[in-house]
Write a structure and sequence with these properties.
It is built from five helices and 20 strands. By secondary structure, it is mainly beta. The chain has one domain: Sandwich (Jelly Rolls).
């Protein structure tokens, strides 16, 4: 990889998953087949790579495993197959995070792109009125925060590349899909045009609003240091990332949040 994530774990293309280096830990990845995500796609009958993506939740270095658990923090990895799903890019299912039992909040999530190009799509509400909608285009080394309670999905921005990203979240993570699936996805659908570029079409199940497409910004108020791998920042100063599992510590920052 051109980007060094500070963690000796690498994505593998076949079979889709991860290779763990010495001193690291992680599970056998879970794979998501095409059938499992059809309910959130624009075209539920489309064809594409299968499995679509692989997930390894709870990865890291052995020396920091206990502290991650004590802090109720979890670092996960996802890698997408190259290709496209019908006329759409490879993507995750839209979801909102389940309320955490220990914090009583829907946790935020911090994404870091490792390989490929990603659009981190997010909207304020899982309701007919989605509120503000953003698609943040991110490349290797870029960090994007999704705030508590916002429905979101990750989309591959380059069909010829295998997208891989890390994600820091609450150890009691959980996904809720019902509100998104009953509207057949989130408020905006990513679509590949004839040149292979991402365009966006509104989902008619939602009240039409504006979509803002933007680049990642610096998150100095959250203690994130640009240019330093996310995992290295976490293990260097766990206190600075405790707001991920205890979102109330950053409560003033969530009001009028913009990615």
């Amino acid at each position: 990889m051109s980007f060094n994530p500070g963690l000796d774990i690498r994505p593998v293309g076949y079979p889709l998953g991860f290779s763990y280096g010495p001193g690291t830990f992680g599970p056998e990845p879970e794979v998501r087949c095409l059938e499992a995500i059809r309910a959130s796609l624009r075209d539920a009958e489309c064809n594409g790579p299968d499995p679509v993506y692989a997930i390894a939740m709870d990865v890291g270095t052995v020396e920091h495993e206990a502290e991650l658990r004590r802090r109720m923090l979890l670092f996960g990895l996802v890698t997408f197959a190259a290709g496209q799903i019908g006329s759409d890019p490879v993507r995750s299912q839209g979801h909102v995070h389940r309320v955490s039992g220990h914090s009583r909040w829907r946790p935020p999530e911090v994404f870091e792109v490792w390989t490929g190009t990603a659009y981190i799509y997010m909207q304020e509400f899982a309701a007919d009125d989605p509120g503000r909608c953003f698609a943040v285009i991110a490349r290797p080394g870029d960090v994007v925060i999704v705030p508590p309670g916002w429905p979101h999905a990750t989309i591959s921005g380059e069909p010829k590349e295998q997208l891989t990203f890390g994600a820091l979240c609450d150890r009691e993570y959980g996904f809720e899909y019902d509100e998104v699936r009953k509207r057949r996805g989130l408020a905006w659908y990513p679509v590949l045009n004839s040149a292979g570029d991402i365009t966006w079409e509104p989902n008619p199940a939602y009240r039409l609003g504006l979509l803002r497409i933007c680049k990642p910004r610096a998150y100095a108020e959250f203690g994130i240091i640009p240019g330093v791998p996310l995992y290295e920042q976490i293990v260097e100063d766990f206190d600075s990332f405790q707001w991920v599992s205890k979102p109330f510590l950053a409560e003033p920052l969530w009001e009028n949040f913009e990615p």
